[in-house]
From TrEMBL:
Transmembrane feature ranges: 34-52, 72-92, 149-168, 174-193, 263-282, 288-305
Protein name: ABC transporter ATP-binding protein
UniProt cross-references to Gene3D superfamilies, sorted A to Z: ABC transporter type 1, transmembrane domain (1.20.1560.10), P-loop containing nucleotide triphosphate hydrolases (3.40.50.300)
Organism (species): Terrabacter terrigena
Domain ABC transporter, first and last residues per copy: 331-569
Membrane-protein topology: Multi-pass membrane protein
Main location: membrane
Any Pfam family matching the protein: ABC_tran
GO MF, any single term: ATP binding
Length: 573
């Protein structure tokens, strides 16, 4: 990622990463208010339905069998009231269930986004890109689904207790059957859930690999077509797709068993309770109205039982998603803030890298040449406090590693050789913080020789940039990235091969304009281009990552054969 733009850091309320359960509790605590509201209405919604059979039984016993018209009307009115309460509370419960689902899902996705911004390249080194994408697109939604069903599950538990107490008061055997039978039936589901969880985890792993493979293929499609490798990667994708299908089939068997259990177990339970109730009615232990009520209770208990099985299923999926998400959250950034920071010196200052012995004098246009581009790229990372290893670079004696990271990013800006563009308007892409007017943006664009890029866009600065800037050529993306770096106005600007993808005429224009625009400010360019070297105030030549020679370009060309070979080879390329 181009290191010019500073992205937001992780949420300060970072959750406990010890376990997926701890993470799910953290998400729940963050939205406890809407959860409480949803649970309250979920309880009212199901308890009001649980009382339907009681009202119907009373209407039958007192109104129809007892011949009391007043009682019949009264219990019918109560039944209508319960139906109204159930309808209204159900609507509110559903609304807050959706709110909880979206909050849980998008808070998780947002947290992954903050973590990705905070860790940068460390994340992709530790976790495959496909897994990160799947965490946002799939796992976050599974986590949100747990909080969607939570309100209904709470209502199911309370309504189950209410029904059990009513049955106990009317018939102790029936009440005990309900109190004991429901937990036993739910416990039977563990024999399905455990293997289902293992197979869902395997499916999640294979899906992540498939997403990563697809992303890599799309990103490198132009290269693949250039070398005729489309069929090879298509075959790899087909093989991985079949792996996902196979593990999906293994998941489907247990998922089907769980879905069948949601119908079979409640159905068997209803048969048992109705059979017992019918026997008690025949023996005169309960009334006809109570028998109707018992049947209503058993039919109603299908809802709590199915909700319990759904809760088990959602909790299993959420636990798997939370496990993958916590793997992302455990990744630590390459650079962390020191416990006690030191302020950087004010004003222009000298940069010194003890590893390579490179010293960058303030206010000069310095070019670093290396036969191995990875050595100069590593130097750029150290100068900007990037990379996996802690830098010992000093700014007038103050270690960058001891300074506040935000100050380092503001004072030293590094723009890498692989420019990354994001979707949005071109104006927002070049000036993400909106600090400059159009005239300033156009001036920086002219320095980067990007006038022709702007002229080709019908909307000018308001033109939409497509994802990853795919509508632009490599040279155009490079010039836009240089414009973005220039607009930061950084005290020290480090550019890695900023003109490697442009032609010689454009490179010459950029070199001349860049030195003029940055005159008086510190600029470090990693390049072996003679067109840039001709404009340099000072040139540093690296051999095996160390300073081998330093001085004016003409002097180094005359006195150092290794330097001359490196530059001439670059010119021939």
């Amino acid at each position: 990622m181009n290191q010019v733009i500073s992205l937001p850091h992780a949420d300060p309320g970072t959750p406990d990463l010890t376990s997926p359960t701890a993470y799910l509790r953290w998400v729940g605590r963050g939205q406890w208010r809407t959860l409480v509201v949803a649970i309250c209405f979920g309880v009212v919604w199901l308890v009001s339905q649980a009382l339907f059979p009681a009202a119907m039984g009373k209407a039958i016993d007192e109104g129809i069998i007892g011949g009391d018209g007043g009682s019949l009307l009264r219990w019918c009115a109560i039944l209508v009231g319960l139906v109204t309460i159930s309808a209204l509370s159900g609507a509110v419960r559903h609304r807050y269930a959706v709110v909880n689902w979206m909050q849980g899902a998008f808070r998780s996705a947002q947290l992954v986004g903050h973590k990705a911004a905070d860790t940068g390249e460390a994340l992709t080194r530790a976790v495959p890109t496909g897994d990160v994408v799947a965490t946002v697109s799939s796992d976050a939604m599974r986590i949100g689904g747990l909080y969607d069903v939570l309100a209904r599950f709470a209502g199911a538990v309370v309504s189950y207790v209410v029904v059990a107490l009513i049955l106990l008061s009317a018939s102790t055997p029936l009440g005990l059957v309900v109190l004991i039978g429901v937990p036993v039936l739910v416990g039977c589901l563990t024999f399905i859930v455990r293997p289902l969880q293992a197979r869902q985890l395997a499916q999640r792993e294979e899906s992540g690999k498939l997403i990563g493979l697809g992303a890599d293929t799309v990103a490198g499609l132009r290269v693949l077509r250039g070398i005729g490798g489309e069929h090879t990667f298509l075959s790899r994708y087909a093989v991985q797709s079949q792996s996902v299908r196979e593990v999906g089939n293994r998941v489907a068997g247990y998922q089907a068993a769980l879905d069948a259990a949601q119908v079979l177990l409640p159905g068997l339970f209803v048969l048992v309770v109705v059979w017992l109730g019918a026997r008690f009615a025949i023996e005169g232990e309960i009334t006809a109205g109570q028998l109707v009520a018992f049947y209503g209770y058993t039919a109603f208990l299908v809802i709590p039982l199915r909700t319990a099985t759904e809760m088990v299923d959602r909790a299993t999926r959420a636990h798997i998603g939370a496990r993958k998400l916590t793997n992302v959250l455990r990744v630590q950034p390459d650079q962390v803030e020191a416990a006690q920071t030191q302020a950087l010196p004010t004003g222009p200052a000298r940069l010194h890298d003890p590893v390579s012995q490179v010293t960058v004098e303030p206010g000069r246009f310095t070019v670093v040449v290396s036969a191995r581009p990875e050595d100069s790229a590593a130097l750029a990372d150290r100068l900007g406090r990037f990379g996996a290893t802690e830098t010992d670079v000093r700014l007038d004696g103050t270690r960058l590693a001891d300074a506040p990271l935000a100050d380092v990013r503001r004072r030293v800006v590094v723009s890498e050789t692989d420019p990354r563009l994001f979707s949005g308007t071109l104006r927002d892409e070049l000036d993400p913080w909106g600090e400059h007017d159009d005239a300033t943006i156009l001036e920086a664009l002219s320095v980067a020789s990007g006038d022709d890029v702007l002229e080709a866009l019908p909307g000018g600065l308001d033109n939409e940039v497509e994802e990853r800037g795919r509508a632009f050529s490599g040279g155009q993306r490079q010039r836009l990235a240089l414009t973005r770096a220039l607009l930061t106005g950084a005290e020290t600007l480090v550019l890695v091969e900023p003109t490697s993808a442009v032609d010689a005429h454009t490179e010459a224009r950029i070199a001349g304009r860049l030195t003029a625009a940055r005159r008086g400010r510190t600029t470090v360019v990693m390049s072996a281009s003679p067109l840039i070297l001709d404009k340099a105030d000072h040139v540093v030549f690296l051999r095996d990552g160390k300073v081998a020679a330093a001085g004016p370009h003409d002097q180094l060309m005359a006195e150092h054969p290794d330097y001359r070979r490196t530059v001439v080879r670059g010119e021939e390329d």
